[in-house]
Amino acid sequence: RIVTKNNIRYTMLNYTYGTNGIRVPSGKEYLVNVWPTDLEVNDVEKDTAYQEYKEQVKKDIEQVRDKVDVLMVAMHWGVEYTDEATAYEKDMASYLASLGVDIIIGAHPHVIQPVTWIDKTLVIYSLGNFISAQYQTDDYNKMVGLMTSLEIKKKVKGKSSEVSITNVDNDLVYTYYKNWRGFKVVPFSSSEIATYLPDYQRIHDKYAKVVKKYDNKLVDFVDRMLKVIRDILDVDLTTDQKVKESLIIHLRPTIFRLRYGTQQKNPLIDFIKKEYKNVFRASWAISILFEEYYG
Known about the structure:
Number of strands: 9
Strand order of the largest sheet: 1-2-3-4-6-5
Helix content: 25-40%
Shape: globular
Structural class: alpha/beta
Largest sheet: 6 strands, mixed
Number of helices: 7
C-alpha cells in the first residue's frame, strides 16, 4: 500500500528473522516475509539461505522504489537484550541501504540499540520497548525505550523532485508500573520523570550513549583531525561547525563499510589497490632519492 501525505508518497516493507517458533501455514508464506538467519552458523557469508533471500528483498524493493518518495523498512531482527547490533543486523542494514531504502526501523531486542546513518539511509537498530511489563532488572534496560522523530522534506523542480530527511531527534521514554498495575509511559524530557524514576539522570545518560554509540568515536576522530590540520597547516577549522558536520556525514558511511561491510571480489578495486601500491612505492623511492641528494 502506498500512502500520500503533503504530496509525499511513502510505503513500508517488513521482514523478520523468524516467527518465534510459530509455523507459517503451508501455502500461505505470503503472510510473513521471513529473511532467515541461522544463529548456529552465525556467519553472514556462510549462511546460504540468508544470502539467497537477498534476491527476494531486492525484487520487493525494485517493485516500489520508483513509485514512492520515501521507502521505509521495518526489521524484526537481532538478539534479545543486547545493545549492540549483530553482524546480521549490520549486513542487512548495509544491503537495504545499497538498494535505496530511506529509513530502517528495527525491533525485537527489547532494548535500545544505536541510531546511525549509512550513506543517506537512517538506521534505527532497535527502538527497545515502548511500553513493557518485563522485569525492572539490568539497570532498567528493558524499561527504557526510544522515540525517534524526523522531518521529511520534498523539493519539486519541474518534473524532478528531491527528498531529504532532516532534524532527526531521539527521545528516551521510561515505562513505569507498580505491582503489575498503573502502567505509564514517561518521556525523560518530562518534568514528571523524577517522580517515577529518581535516578533518571544517570539512566538517561547511560542509554543516550547507546543511541550515539556508533557516532561518538567518529566525532572525536573529526575533532582530532581538525586539530592536526590546524597545527600542521596553520588553518583553524576547529570552530567551523559546518565543516565538522560535513566531514562526519561523509566519513560515517565510509567507516561503516570498513568496519561492517561485506567484502566482495571486484577486479576494478583490485586493480586500483595494486596501482596504488605501485605509486606509493615509487613515491617512497623518490623521497629517499631526494633525501640522498638534498638532505
